[in-house]
């Protein structure tokens, strides 16, 4: 009996030891699986555009919270990144990219077409930008609510307050002011919407009004000496940031000019070939490209305040650099400007990778040295001074940089 009892105890101990070993082994294997999954957040062999798209989804699983928001909102920053992700989807066919864009629309547009957090009466041009994402979804898989939401955005533009010459105010609370930003926010969407949904007479009115916005920017905001553009123009000349003689703001802000350049290369996708304004905008783009390459830094990127690289406090900035790179690449690829500008675009993208991009162990990429925000007027008041522009918050992965980064990467097939 003692011998049998001893053998039983030994056998039991051996079985326990084997079970413990198996548990440890299983736990270790599960840990490795988790680590492997984390490492595969962004595939190592993917292109830069796909890397950034997947990185943004990883950072912001809820697309309504893009731009580090704590609550869902309808905003231009969401629309900008989602438009870039749409373009990546068209290249890759990755369903998770489409689903991410759809998730935003599904959350923000109610069944009756009401847009959550949107207020038409604010007449804010920034709020038009997310319409591009909705237009794209409607082309893929139509839903009545998406069309109703776009009708609302069109209605806003139909009633948008204007300067005496017909230039859109940037927002109702910024009276008589045209900002470079506004053309990118509103005009590509409005052109697409008009061509798709309006009758010919109305289409012509919309296209004429779109071209007028570019004509007025050229008339009022372009500096003939440098070829650069001032961030804002106040027709009333009442704003403290505005020159009392010209109504112009003080400086050439990188991202402000970036918005305008992207507006030009994108609107040309939709302007009818026979419209006389098309050739004018191509000429504006040629002048623009000639100017910005003169201010490209040796390392390929651009300064926050474009024409003052040696002034203390100025810095090489990521969002404007991504925008300029995209504008030069797309303009050259489309034949609007000389193919020689591809050299500048490639130099720009190389500079962005070298100076601004970092890669985490799981493959997620970061775009650093982004100006978080800049504007004119408001409360607290933004005076448009050099010190103002260089002292605004600098952060990583601002959507105003990550979106154009994807645009540029796609145009250069990097």
Automatic annotation (TrEMBL):
Keywords for the protein's UniProt record, in alphabetical order: Hydrolase
Keyword Hydrolase part of the UniProt annotation: yes
InterPro entries the UniProt entry points to: 6-hairpin_glycosidase_sf, 6hp_glycosidase-like_sf, Glyco_hydro_88, PolySaccharide_Degr_Enz
Gene3D superfamilies membership: 1.50.10.10
GO MF: hydrolase activity
Name the UniProt record assigns to this protein: Unsaturated rhamnogalacturonyl hydrolase
Organism in which the protein naturally occurs: Maribacter sedimenticola
